[in-house]
Design a protein that fits this description.
The protein is α/β, with parallel strands linked by helices. The chain folds into two domains: about 10-75, Chemotaxis receptor methyltransferase CheR, N-terminal domain (Chemotaxis Receptor Methyltransferase Cher, domain 1, Orthogonal Bundle); about 85-270, Rossmann fold. The chain has ten helices and ten strands. Strand 9 and strand 10 form a beta hairpin. The longest helix is centred in the first third of the chain and has 15 residues, at about 10-25.
């Protein structure tokens, strides 16, 4: 049975562009029109609607805002993996190893745009492996994402064997437990790792309820979806919420080149707040 194609007009695409930008500053380039049509057609079918005009009326009439959130969920790419862009985790290990732990009364790390949780759990495994007495320390990892669905999956902390391929063997042995499901074999992050991480849904371009300061902020492969104005504002907000000497880590495909900022360059995609 052929599935009827639901056509997205230019005017409808521009309306969606405006809705998404106003919500979270994600800039949908005209080249993304086909992707938007494909992904939102699935939402339209799920809701039992027949066209994008009907769908946009549905979004406009949804006072809860849930469907607008579902729209953003459908359009954002959540590509991630454990220890993705490994040099960043090598750097994190070096930086954390250099701290005189007994003189660090409080440590806060933020994984902004955490997707399904692999990044903050990778950070947590590194910290637990470094500090055997971490449970007696005031160490917390804040993990946020705009997608409610990704936050739900991240909190579950359950992954396929394929997802664990980049996790070092010793970490797999120590920090994951096997979970047998009806379909396949999965692995769950152990409580000693998961209790270091606090997951929250958060829109980076909205108000920030967290006060900081943070020693490390990971915001990787997120700013590439923003226009220059939003990138500039985000870099400034990150700088202000970091502690002196704290670092911002962005994706290797990103960088702060072309933005006005006060960060000190450390190495590719790693920037430090001046002390």
């Amino acid at each position: 049975m052929l599935i009827r194609q639901i056509v997205l007009s230019d005017n409808e695409f521009n309306t969606i562009r405006t809705l998404v930008y106003d919500l979270c500053s994600i800039d949908l380039h005209p080249s993304k029109k086909a992707l938007v049509q494909m992904r939102l057609s699935n939402r339209i079918r799920i809701l039992g609607l027949n066209s994008f005009s009907e769908y946009l009326r549905w979004v406009a009439n949804d006072a809860s805002g849930k469907e607008l959130g579902a729209m953003v969920d459908s359009l954002t790419t959540n590509l991630t993996s454990f220890f993705r862009e490994r040099p960043h985790f090598v750097y994190l290990t070096e930086k954390m190893s250099s701290l005189e732990v007994k003189r660090v009364p409080r440590l806060r790390i933020w994984s902004a745009g955490c997707s399904s949780g692999e990044e903050p759990y990778s950070i947590a495994m590194i910290l637990r492996d470094l500090w055997s007495d971490i449970d007696a320390m005031d160490v917390r990892i804040l993990a946020t994402d705009i997608s409610s669905n990704m936050i739900r999956l991240a909190r579950q902390g359950t992954y396929s064997a394929q997802k664990l391929e980049k996790v070092p063997f010793t970490f797999r042995q120590k920090y994951f437990g096997k979970v047998n499901t009806a379909k396949d074999e999965k692995y769950q992050v152990k409580p000693e790792v998961s209790r270091l991480v606090y997951f929250r849904r958060h829109n980076l371009t909205g108000p920030w309820p967290m006060k900081g300061p943070f020693e490390v902020i990971f915001c990787r492969n997120v700013m590439i979806y923003f226009d220059r104005v939003a990138q500039q504002e985000l870099a400034s907000r990150f700088y202000n919420i970091l502690s002196p000497g704290g670092v911002l880590i962005v994706g290797h495909s990103e960088g702060l080149t072309g933005l006005e900022h006060s960060f000190q360059y450390v190495r590719p995609s790693v920037y430090m707040k001046r002390s």
